[in-house]
Amino acid sequence: MRKSLIVAGAALAGAVWAARKVPAELGVRPLGSGPDREARIKASPQFKDGVFYNPMPEPTQVGAPSAGLLRELARDREARRPKGMIPLLVPPAREPDPDGLSVVWYGHASSLVEIEGKRVLFDPVWSRRVSPSQLFGPKRHHPLPVELAQLPQVDAIVISHDHYDHLDMVTVQALTRTQRAPFLVPLGIGAHLERWGVPAYRIVELDWDEEAQVAGLRFVATAARHFSGRSLTRNDTLWGSWVVAGRERKVFYAGDSGYFEGYKGIGAAHGPFDLTLMPIGAYSPAWPDIHMNPEEAVNAHLDLGGKLLLPVHWATFTLALHPWAEPVRRLWSEAKAREVSIVVPRPGELVEAGSAPEVDGWWETLG
């Protein structure tokens, strides 16, 4: 009995210790974070009636849960996770090619692009769970290929929006200590970063169609069809996609988005792109407007004038009801049918955009 009480007490103490970070994880309401940011937000064409919104004419909403959702969640749970260990690779330590373009996908959306000698880190998330608490929420299907401390010095850290699977407080705090690079974020997200200890001089907040020069690269915040929020309050920070352009090379990172006609305009204004990083997972008939399916990712890639497509937003966390390997199977089928060049790296694998390896179906035995 005494031993049981000790174990229960230790578990409760652990839960209380873990829960202490939750208020900080929720972030900050940006309208109350300072007059300068408030003025910029209220002047944004994407802001009205107290929130950011999607100006594209298509609706953007999360549908009501189906009556059989609980049955669906309980059914085929094993199909929504890999059947074995996901193979990991450790990228080589090296200096980036001053004329080249390469990428390392660490899992989910976290990716490191080396473009013309500079390194750009997209949506870094190193926590075990994507949640305001590490006691619950979707957890990783595979470890990180490298620890944060093993990352090389990067030139820019780019965030697409403030959902937990794209913006992680613990990772941001670690990068603030170990890196010197600025954070480029959509409008409003700087309020979260400031609360988490990022110095204001390292934060670059942009509205859609605004741009900044960092380390000799041009960064443009572009549109996405999504939403934001780290609690029950939604859309008080902006979401977006990103264009990264060097002298000769260009990369597009979509973040999270449903498909919309605006990709054609982004392609016309900023493309063509040597590499696109496109989300292919976590789609559902219940939310068709906020996440692309694999076929729509190919459509968007072609709209953008993309040459090589690298899929992200799959494999690492279960965030929807579809089988674990279904997104990449559908992507591969669609790419072959439409003669689109894709690369599907293992987490940690270094890919040279100009000599990407053939797709080998490494996931097939796991799905």
Strand-helix topology:
Blueprint: H1 2-19, H2 22-25, H3 35-43, E1 47-48, E2 51-52, H4 69-74, E3 101-107, E4 110-115, E5 118-122, E6 156-158, H5 169-178, E7 183-186, H6 190-195, E8 203-206, E9 211-214, E10 217-222, E11 241-245, E12 250-253, H7 262-270, E13 273-279, H8 294-303, E14 306-312, H9 326-338, E15 341-342, E16 350-352
Parallel strand pairs: 5-6, 6-7, 7-8, 12-13, 13-14, 14-15
Antiparallel strand pairs: 1-2, 3-4, 3-16, 4-5, 9-10, 10-11, 11-12
Helix pairs in contact: 7-8, 8-9
Number of helices: 9
Give the DSSP E fraction (strand runs of 2 or more residues): 15-25%
The helix-strand sequence is HHHEEHEEEEHEHEEEEEHEHEHEE
Radius of gyration: 20 Å
What integer is the average pLDDT? Answer: 92
- Report how far apart the termini are: 45 Å
Give, in spatial order, the strands making up the sheet with the most strands.
8-7-6-5-4-3-16
- Structural class, from secondary structure content? alpha/beta
Largest sheet: 7 strands, mixed
Low-confidence stretches: 2-18
The residue fraction in helices comes out at 10-25%
- Global morphology: globular
Task: Kindly state the number of beta strands.
Answer: 16
